[in-house]
Amino acid sequence: MKLLLAINSLETGGAETFFCHLARGLAEAGHTVYYWQLFYVVRNPTYESILAHPNIIPFSPPINHVKLLVDNTSFLKKWWTKFRLNRFIRRHEIQLVNTHLFETDYFASQYLNLPQVVSMHGSYEMYLNNLAIFDQDCIYRDYPINQLINHVFSKANYIITAAQKNELAFSGALKIPDNSKVYYGRPASPKVNDSTSIQRIGMLARGIESKGWRHVLMAYNELVLDYPKLELVLGYTPSDFMNELKIEFQHLEGIQWREHVLDPMGFFSEIDVCVFPTQYPAESLPNVVIESLACHVPVLTTNIGEIETMISSDEGLAGHCLSHSLNSADLLAGIVGQLRAWLVNPDEYVQVKRCCKPAFSKFDLEQSTSNYERIFNAVIDRHA
User: Fold this and answer.
1) pTM (2 d.p.)
2) What is the pLDDT of residue 354?
């Protein structure tokens, strides 16, 4: 197959990480994969290394095509730009577009003459649940969110969800396309953590408040009084919020602040437990949980999105889940209490650690890629 995978951009995030792994999996299966950063290009060394394969090709139509179609230009100019963009696509003999993130989904449904498979990641329910975020962040904010969703669903040939909460977008839709759930996939990690007790606590996420950074730092502040050799490793994308936290907690020793972690598997293999107390409203299937499990590192997290299912296995939970609806004080108490339990009883820590490998098995990249291939082939055959 000749496929076009499209996404807003390749800024660091869970959707973006899976996008790159999927492109790689499809390329290794013998398909030609064009990848398109639709709205602006981000140079991300981690993602570039994943996309470094002879079957993966950047897709670069003239940049003004997208700008003219998004801007409030005349009907005639938009019609001509759409014609030129689709002519450019036909020259590449692309058979299907797989879109990731809401804005790209809408753009493709409005302007591309291709069979479309939409991969949902969490932005639909985030916008539906918080119109203030929609009004602030979405480039199509001038239109009602339900109108935009109905347009996408009326044009899409298939919807792939990653978590049950993605289906919230179906509740008010006039038409629901054929759909199924496919978990994110990633390769198994060659780097694993083999510790039998907790010496290093770690967290890796975007540098935004709702991921739970302050709770992790406050928990460490309490625990280090009883466990002075305990270390905390934080990997994050730079932000004003993280700069403020560095100042607020500068009195604490034993903390490593790491901006722009380029090797997440190396990061997780260095820590003994991942603490991820996220209350981020768009959380569905966070990649950091998958990466932590791949490195045999238990996860102390919340039950938002699909996380509790993610860390589950036939052998038990590969970590512990707290309610994402807890108030700040109770969430902090839960983090401290569970970490203290594992520190006091290393056997209990080892027991949850043994569950990481079987819990990760559901995120096998070959299995995920195979499911995507089956859906793509069915849509292409039906469209033909």
Assistant:
1) 0.86
2) 96
